Structure formats: C-alpha cells, structure tokens
Amino acid sequence: MANSSENFTVAPMPDVASPLDLVKASIYVLAAQFQLFPYVIILWIIFKDQKTYGAPVYRIIFHMGLTDCIVLIFHCTALPITIFRPDIRSWSIKDFLAI
Description:
By secondary structure, the protein is mainly α. It has one domain. Helices cover 72% and strands 0% of the residues. It contains 4 helices and no strands. It has helices at 19-48, 50-53, 56-84, 91-98. α1 (19-48) runs antiparallel to α3 (56-84). The radius of gyration is 21 Å and the shape is elongated. The chain starts with 18 loop residues before the first helix and ends with a helix. The chain crosses the membrane at residues 25-47, 59-84. Keywords: Membrane, Transmembrane, Transmembrane helix.
C-alpha cells in the first residue's frame, strides 16, 4: 500500500499578489487603523482622569489596552508584508520579524 502523501501535490505560489489580495490587505490595514484611533482616545481618557486611573482595575485595563494597541500595530504591518512577499534579505523585513 502506497503512502498517501506521495500523491499529494502543492500548487506553486504566484510571484506577485493579485489585485484582489492587495484590496483585501488594504481593507485589513484600514480596519485595524480604524479600531486603533478610538482605542487610543479611550485609553488617553482613562489615563488623564486621576480618579479613574488611581483605581487598580483601571490601571490593569489601561495596561491591557496598551498591549492590545501594540498587537494591532504589528498585525496591520504583518499582513501587507505577507501579501507583497518582499525579499527576506531586506534589513527592514528582518527588523519586523525580529520584533
């Protein structure tokens, strides 16, 4: 009986992203930015109000929000890098991958 993986073939990846992929990536980045701006405003309001920020619960919420903003920023930069498939030898790509 032959191994089932011997009959499995993988289609090669295209060298250039399709226009539909570029539109999807642009929508994704804009959606992430759209979520980021109100998020930062709400975090700024929590931080500026000393009565609110003095409570331990709101400090935890603030720090979780900062972490979430950082994750949003890196996720919206990772998708275009994946879609455009730049050369891995580029120093900027190495920096993004290291972070």
